[in-house]
Amino acid sequence: MVPVKSRTRFAPSVTGHLHLGHLMNAIHVWGLARTWGAEVALRLEDHDRRRFRPEYESSILDDLDWLGLAPDLGRTFEFRTGSTPWRQSSATARYDRALVHLAERGLVYACDCSRAAVGTEAAPGEEPRYAGTCRDRGLPFDGHRLRVRLDPGSETFDDLRLGRQEQRPDQQCGDFAIRDANGDWTYQFAVTVDDMSQEISLVIRGEDLLASTGRQIRLARLLGRDRAPAYYHHPLVVGADGRKLSKREFAKGIGDLRAEGRSPGSVLGEAAYLGGLIAQPRPLAVEETPGLFR
Ligand code: GLU
Question: CB under 6 Å to ligand 1: residues?
């Protein structure tokens, strides 16, 4: 049998510029991929067409290049010579097929509940859970939000850093949206289809996305994926005094740091320091990232 190479991905949303939080993710993606012999695929997550801007895409690609973070797949460099990188906006046929797959099994329905109506049911600080109000109304798909029907049951997975996790998507969020009323695919849906079609076997991302994992494993199974990827959820960057980074600190893009005359190594080192990977700020080369995880 031909051994299957494991593959992870770096998947920035094209809704802003890269910041230190993305670099904390990139350090994990490249560092762990090189440690475990996995390939790195680039995916430009541009499913949110209202927040997408073409200038974000070019700045993301340019910053990756400047930092020396070269993906093995996803074609950043061919992009530079006129070819295109892997974008969600080019994958719409795959999303349509996935929707048909679910709809044929009676797993999709349309919903016209307002976001506010769903949100008011949640206790403060809790995620709103959709109660399934529109499940049996038979609304037409066109012009409405689409939701996936979730049966009760838990999803269990062994996070490579956090250990065994058990989640109940039907209780946490209920039937979640897969497409908005305006036709935009949601994050949960796009990322699940992409992780299948890009054959991602290892997902490395921040622990702010931990609660999404059970529902993505469930959705992937409904779409016919028989083996879930492995997951590694890493800590997030925090301010130097241990508190969460403020909006303003987060707003500081890699481009701003470049404009201050910083070197790629010092910017990577700052992300690693704010993420608790190194004890003191110091320049960090991409080649050194696997050493952070030994
Ligand atoms: N696009 C997401 C982000 O930039 C990451 C999605 C994921 O890793 O699942 O936060």
Answer: 11-13, 45, 191, 205, 209
